[in-house]
Amino acid sequence: MVPHNQRKRPKEARQGEFVAFAYDRSAVERFRQAFPRARWNDERKSWFVPGKTAARRIERWLAREAAHKDIYGDIKGRDAYDFEPIVSRYLEVGEDLRIRTPYAKSLIEMLREIPWAHWDEDLRVWRVPFRSYEELRRRWSMIEAAARRNEPEEKKRRRDAKMGSEVQRAANARSAERRRHRYPLLPDDPPPAGRPVATVQYGIVVFVEFSGEVAETAALAEHYPHAGGTVDHVWGRWRVPTLAELVATWPARREPGPEALSRGWWQPTLDELRIARRRARSMARRQRARKPAGADAHGTHVH
Known about the structure:
10 helices; 17% strand
């Protein structure tokens, strides 16, 4: 009988670590060179690397592979640009791709969808590595069109064209109503006070007061069609949530149903929270940029 301390341990009990990665012949060759004792586990569809330090060695190898892919992706993207370049006044080319456009929320949302794109606060440009060139080229027509729409001259032309029109009147009325910071609510089903909730018209807000004042039928018909019908609504007062409140808010598990939409408010979804958090962060950055140098936390200058 084989002594207990000399028995061969089952393969699953051996010290080591499993690792899986997308199949690539050259990557497999590099992996086998780095881990000659590694064995393929067909049941788990992954490689088993034996040894007490396997996890650390695998982590270092994966990091090197990621860097290798980034370099290869940048070379490939640079070749793609040389073969079929984007020629635009909004695009500058250097060690990476730099996009400089007029400010517009729609543009920011588009640029955030491009992998590895990031805002450079010092240069005031969006920087995109060449490895993302194909994705940028695929979206460029929409990005450029949005940039042109938001040029100051083009925005002024549209404003002049709308001046005095019904469209302008309706827009001014909506802006004036929003500045009142009021919202129609069912008196017997108000939202929780002090907590961010999503609304039909104003996105995510925080309700701070329920006055009991009955909402006028004319205002509901013009600005809040979801609150129409024979049931009376009362005004609730709201404010914009802080970034801290948005980060602390737990998202709903599912999209709002017809009942919540008819009621006019619901627990925000993860997508709604992401958009609101991005806007809150952008607002905080703009406020910091406008703050005078040397001002303390109360906005007074330090002498």
